[in-house]
Amino acid sequence: MAYRHDRATPPVRPYGPTHREAPTPPVCRSRYRSLLPVLIGTTVCFSVARAADTPATNKPAIQQTASQAHATQSPKAEHIIVHRVSDSAPGNQPGGGLIHLQDGVKSVSTVSQDFISKQAPMATAFQLASMLPGANVASSDPMGFSPNTNITVRGLDNSAIGYVLEGMPLNDVAYYSGTPSQFADSENYQEIALAQGSADLDSPVLNAVGGLMNLTFRDPAKKAGGDASVSYGSYNTNREFIRLDTGDIAHTGIRGFVSYSHGATDNWRGPGRDEKQHVDFKFLKEWGQGNRASLLGSFNTTITSWYPEPTMDTWKSDGIKGQNNLLARYDSSNPDNGANYWRLWRDGERTLYGGAPVHLTLTDRLSLDVTPYAQFAYGNWPGGSTMSTSGLYQGTQALSDTLNLPGAQDGVGVVRADYTQRSYRSGFTSALHYKTGWNDFVLGYWYDYGDDNEQQPFTAVQTNGYAPDIWAENGKDVIRLSNGERLLGGSFHTISQTNALFVGDHMSLLHDHLAIDLGFKAVMMSRDGTNSLPGPQYHVASNSMEPLPRLGVRWRIDGENQLFFNATTNFRAPDQTALYNTYDPSSGEMYGTGSTDVRNEYSISEELGYRRTGRWIIGSLTLFNYNFTNRQISTQAVQNGSIVSTTMNAGGQTSRGVDVEIGLRPWHHFSPYVSGEYLHATIDNDLMSGGDLLRTRGRIAVRSPTLQAAAGLSYDDGHIFGVATVHYTGHQYATFMNDERVSDHTTGDLAIGYRFSDHVHLHQPTLRMNFINITNEHYLSGVASPTLNAKDTTGVYGTTIAGSAPSYYIGGGFAALFTASTGF
């Protein structure tokens, strides 16, 4: 959180430009020096001086008692000055910045700037949250560039989690997923909060049955300045970052920051190189009694190289080598090999997020929050493929064209199967708060409009492996038919609209010992789309209306102990791809059959928890229970050579478990932290496969490790700092029949560094080393594409149901990164 000027800084000055503006108090050296952590968020330091040596204007930081006031009247008397040291300062945060005080009705875990600033600077929000209870991150590269990543929370995957940056949604408009490398640069995060159970009542998300990841930017500094850093490390990784703070602009009270970063890295396995450029900005105006308006956003452009996702058989045979990697050189003699050339699998993406959250204090009792937002995204998710030069189809329509594909052999040539998505999204949230007595009423409305256009053109590959325009935006470079039209494997356009009304009341009773939250949200969602390829389907539409009640209670037993309980409901509509037919241009057959009779996922979840905020220990224990109908599981499908996201209906599911996290306040500059989860998630019914049923009732749900645990130890004396972390993830199943699974794995990271004192115009120059996966474990980090069954099995009605191999993420190998940074 931003440094408050009404609070004195600790003897060691906090790290970062937003903390430079407060004066440094005297160091406590008297016999009265003491720690009183029972004052929440503070350390109290008694500094003794004789009254004759103290200026008359030097007033105590707290109000004097009568005896203290009498003592100051004596020329020889001593008086006590109390300085409050904030827990927000580096080295003073419980658990090294991995745990915060909480007072709400649901489970929330946080990561603060103290922890973030010690990690690798290109670490994504997923990686930064991986130590929190319930969070299981499956990544493909150690540096965080690759989009081949997933996070599950209590067994619920990426697409079941809402991502919100200061009131604006970051989820993909069509697939609900989030790509964390696009969100923001880690230096600009003030806090990452993960609510494991459910989203807030006013959150602009539809899919958050798995919880909400709430991201907060740092506020711009009140004085002009900035920060800069450079990094270099394994796999020829380099990164440069600069942030400029404007300070107060022309005495208007408006202040802002703009940052820019550039990063690049080689693939840690196989050929390829990733490159990324990113811009973050935030401008803020504060006035009156709590009025606040800001304009913030992010722009990201990146080209990344694909990491192939192996099956269990290829993993056991080749590990991180061989067929589990793309080819470094193009093979013009063999189209099947040529399709695996790495340059045909580069992924280009551009995103722009923008929002303008406003808080207005209308009266002593009435306030208004409004957040308009907009989002633009364009990407091409290509893959190498082969195509016949004749006998083609556009949708289900046969074509007489014969293609001229360079290097074609026996009527088959190599093409790049592009898959482009261009989406626009805009909307706003509004909430009117009215406080009276012990009630805080809220009435709100959320509107969201999405325009999503997805197509699959193809680009011919030259005999040297070159395929022009990685973005597939230039129409002259893609394959065209004799009538001038593009050859397409898919083409659909969807307009989606969401209207949500919500009402709630926060009641504070018995001097705030008892807090009760009541809420109700009615969500109406419509989709209207067209499939422009010839075939039986043209217009599609779906409409949903779901009532979502909730209840939460928090009982403060005393100043150190709390109990909380909540019950919430959530729903999620299937991905847009569930609505549309897709076709094979080589045969006219359908890859997938769309349906407007889609079933929404609906869930009821409960949490019962205990919090402890003691003198040294801060912690929580949470019991949770979920009941799902029409559980939506995110997976991947190969469409004409491109890897595309989709969902599968997993029927009913029950998930139960317990989360625990404990952090200690700093002791001799050391701050330990531990977290863990036990999860028991089971499938409630047999699942349909073809004309038969699989015997899945009672089996363990996919991507749901029974045990997870993490531990971290931080040290920070203001100059020397370090963080050591270790994370254990138990085995998790990749199929609904539980006939194939990922083994358990343990990984560890280490960060060490040194902050120098200020020098001339440089503020705390810092040197840091980060070591990622320090033991160089080679492991499968998660399930990329689950299947119903890996092995052939007999169904309930006696037929043989053929198995299909799941695919997996290979976790990133060892990496080291050196970073030099400074404020100015």
From TrEMBL:
Q: What residue stretches are annotated with the TonB-dependent receptor plug domain? A: 102-201
The UniProt entry lists membrane topology as: Multi-pass membrane protein
Where the record annotates domain TonB-dependent receptor-like beta-barrel, the positions are 318-774
| One Gene Ontology MF term | siderophore uptake transmembrane transporter activity
- Annotated region (Disordered) at 1-26
Query: Principal localization?
Result: membrane
Cellular localization per UniProt: Cell outer membrane
Its keywords, alphabetically, are: Cell outer membrane, Ion transport, Iron, Iron transport, Membrane, Receptor, Signal, TonB box, Transmembrane, Transmembrane beta strand, Transport
**Which GO cellular component terms, listed alphabetically, does the Swiss-Prot or TrEMBL entry include?**
cell outer membrane
Homology family: Belongs to the TonB-dependent receptor family.
Protein name (record): TonB-dependent receptor
The species this protein was found in? Gluconobacter roseus NBRC 3990
Q: What is the lineage of its organism?
A: Bacteria, Pseudomonadati, Pseudomonadota, Alphaproteobacteria, Acetobacterales
